[in-house]
Amino acid sequence: MNSDHYEMVPIEVGSLVWYVGYGILLGLIVALFFFAPRSGDEKMERWEAFLGWFILANLFWYQGMALLDGIWMKEESLPLHMCSFSQILLFIHLVYKKDWAFQFVAFWGPLGGIQAFLTPALETEPTFGFVLQFYLAHGLVVLLPIYLMVHGGRRLIKGGVWRIIIITFLAGYVMIPINALLGSNYMYTNNPPPVDHPLVQGEWPGYLVWIQLAVMLLFLMFYYGFRKYTVAK
Predict the structure, then answer these.
(1) Phi, psi angle pair for 172, to nearest 5°
(2) How far apart, in Å, are the Cα atoms of 227 and each of 2, 70, 144, 230?
(3) Model-level pTM?
(4) Neighbouring-strand partners of residue 230
(5) Contact of 110 with 142, CB cutoff 8 Å
(6) Is the Cα torsion angle 84, 85, 88, 94 positive or negative in sign?
(7) 19 lies in which domain range?
(8) Are 155 and 230 within 8 A, CB to CB?
(9) Residues with Cβ within 8 Å of residue 97, at least 6 apart in sequence
(10) Is 129 helix (H, G, I), strand (E, B) or coil?
(11) What is the 3-state secondary structure (H, E, C) of 180-196?
């Protein structure tokens, strides 16, 4: 892949946009954990359907903005990053009630989305629309799976974390030839992310070893941290 084809725009830590992003995250925390319906509430089913369609609309909102602004590129605009997959999985789970989708997004959403908050970067200059879309998308994939476990009655399958880890690794391997074909870097499997990250060390393919070790460690930490929300199947 030729990384000179495009360039991500990192959001500087401590900048106004950076603070706005964390303000959106805080607002979502307050809304979901203090005001949103909980399991057993008669409004819960409609609320979940609304969230599912809102997430899908937000995903398409980016596509529309990118097309209108003339920055849409197959190398970076397709929904093939883990956070994009997480948005699609949330839609499938919330609207169509597919538990398998929740089992994946429970790990991919929080642990993938939080990386975007730690090292945020946009595919264009930080205009209002793109900043709002970015932080809403990543804030929701981080928080909604946790909200659904804590207040929505969802449960992780006991021991299922190993299956999720293996499939996550396989998805990364599949993305390598896809990126080679598209000239892209989805899921950052063909080049290191364009931002400094403590979990990414070295060049391709060595840094992928660090990423896989980090994925395994973080997934296991998340699983055991939320083990009270597991159920045997």
Answers:
(1) -65, -40
(2) 42, 46, 17, 5
(3) 0.90
(4) 156
(5) yes
(6) negative
(7) 3-231
(8) yes
(9) none
(10) helix
(11) HHHCCCHHHCCCCCCCC
The pair of structure tokens assigned to 230 is 């597991």
For 29-81, what is each residue's pLDDT tens digit? 999 999 999 999 999 999 999 999 999 999 999 999 999 999 899 988 999 99
Q: From CA 178, how far away is CA 194, in angstroms rounded?
A: 19
Structural domain count, the chain? 1
User: Could you report the per-residue pLDDT of 110-141, keeping only the tens digit for each?
Assistant: 998 888 888 788 878 888 999 999 999 999 99
| Location of structure tokens 């003339």 | 70
The pairs formed by 227-233 with CB atoms below 8 angstroms and a separation of 24 or more are: 229/149, 229/150, 229/154, 229/155, 229/156, 230/155, 230/156, 230/157, 230/158, 231/155, 231/156, 231/157, 231/158, 232/157, 232/158, 233/157, 233/158, 233/160
Residue 1 pLDDT: 40
- Residues 38/151, Cβ–Cβ less than 8 Å: yes
Q: Is the pLDDT of residue 6 over 80?
A: no
Specify the range with the lowest mean pLDDT, choosing from 97-101, 117-121, 196-200: 196-200
